[in-house]
Write a structure and sequence with these properties.
The structure is a single chain. By secondary structure, the chain is an all-alpha fold. α2 crosses α4 and α2 crosses α5. The longest helix has 21 residues.
Length: 162
């Protein structure tokens, strides 16, 4: 890997509005995914470093655009999308723990708030590590916990377990 190289051109996409950012990301991701393994990992490493240096307010929409670009690539060329996702996971295996934690947090936020169930299902297929980061069931509020209704229908108090 190229070490500490940061891809400033990739980071600058955060300054674009959603549609132009998505278009440029789609083009760039297709190009990177088509590279040989070594070159792809080098490019993705620099892109990841740039991406995760963004402020939280920029990172959330940036991640949403990137994930949607991956989904779009998957629709036209599944193997290319797999190359991209596997390369991204490979890069994160050597990144600092704090960056990996931030990735997890942002991915969860984007999946819970912005993505459809179909988009999340596609990402589960593409990105094995996302299984550990994003729940498959969407929870819209804290009051919609699955076990709450079952607890209300009990005939005896919880403390009486016999």
């Amino acid at each position: 890997m190229t070490g500490e190289h940061v891809d400033q051109e990739w980071a600058e996409l955060a300054t674009l509005s959603a549609a132009p950012r998505f278009g440029r990301m789609l083009e760039r991701c297709r190009t990177v995914a088509a590279l040989d393994d070594h070159a792809r990992i080098d490019a993705l490493s620099a892109m990841v470093r740039a991406e995760y240096q963004l402020a939280d307010a920029e990172l959330h929409p940036f991640t949403l655009s990137r994930l949607r670009a991956w989904i779009a690539i998957n629709e036209s060329d599944h193997e290319l999308a797999i190359n991209l996702a596997r390369g991204y996971d490979t890069v994160f295996q050597s990144m600092p723990c704090a960056m990996a934690m931030r990735r997890s947090s942002i991915a969860q936020g984007v999946a819970r708030v912005d993505l459809t169930a179909e988009e999340v299902a596609t990402l589960f297929e593409l990105i094995p590590s996302i299984v550990q980061q994003v729940p498959r069931v969407r929870v819209d509020s804290l009051t919609s916990r699955p076990h709450a209704a079952a607890m209300e229908t009990r005939s005896k108090p919880l403390w009486r377990f016999w």
